[in-house]
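Supplementary notes for students who missed Thursday's class. We covered one full example, reproduced here. Read the sequence, then the structure, then the short commentary at the end.
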Amino acid sequence: MDPFTHALSGALLARATAPLPRLQAGLSLRARIAAGFAAAAFPDLDFSLRLIDTLTYLNWHQGPTHSLLLLPVWAWLLAYLFSRFTRGKYHWKMFYLPACLGIAIHIAGDLITAYGLMLFAPISTQRFYLPFAFVIDPWFSAIIIAGLFASLIFPRKRAAAIFSLVGLVGYVVCLWMLHDRAMNIGQGYANTQMLTRAEVYVLPQPLSPFHWKVIIKNDEAYQVALVTLWRSQYKSLQGTDIGLLKKMAAAYQPFNRVNWQHLAQFGDEPNESDLVREAWNQPVFANFRQFSVFPLLDRIDNDEKEICIWFFDLRFQFPGLPPSFRYGMCRKSNHLSDWYMQRQQGTFWLD
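Structure (token representation):
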């Protein structure tokens, strides 16, 4: 999820779990909500890894700061800092539970996206994910904002915040069901094509919870489709003044009209595959290999001075936009120099 939605979810959970007014003691409601807001924003401080380089950030984002094992440590640290910020008005123990809840709901929010979390860092760097929601989901954010707004109108009642959390759970269950429908489409296609060794993945997409990317991985080949689970009719756009968002939305088609793309991880040209594999397996490219889940050859640039072989990850390719996080291996055209890594700027500043 985006950082602002994370922070708001922490505030909502802090409000929903606040003691009833007659039972409140010690920590004020305002301080509790502020602590939940800040704690839910905390895990994304790993963004500072961008100061090292982008690949270090990509490989360690949603790492130790998103670990369930380290959650008690981070919560204690934040509780101590909150206590110091209030100049000792509140003991750190009063902030500990809101801090735990804020970090926990941040972890839960990222767990349902496709990037993956190192839930058991530092013991393990294995990533876990349930790819139900796109990283920016307006409906998810709207449910949280509605709950917080209602809580402002009725400040002495926590029912609005509780109902909002129940609504979030219900929305995630709906996303789970849509995920299963998209998975069935991929598995059905794999069966019809007799891809017995294939693995099927589905990834949530932007603009609508009904948009999904279906990826069937079979050895070093992919079958990729952009599917909508909302429309039952094929949608085409006419004219030249159609906006980008409409063009993107139109790329997702009903399963019975979907266009399956057949993509080779190292390209379709046999005479180039050896060179592409040589570039891919270079030691200096190890960090990109670690980051990539669905790597694909983008293109080969070759001129008199230099040859560059570019790759990207299918997770970060969206219709109408150039892929994000494109990296390539380059060397001089005389074949005598060593390979070195380059990065291409994408659509968004984060690239």
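Commentary. The two ends are 17 Å apart (CA to CA). The chain has a mean pLDDT of 91. If anything here is unclear, bring it to office hours.
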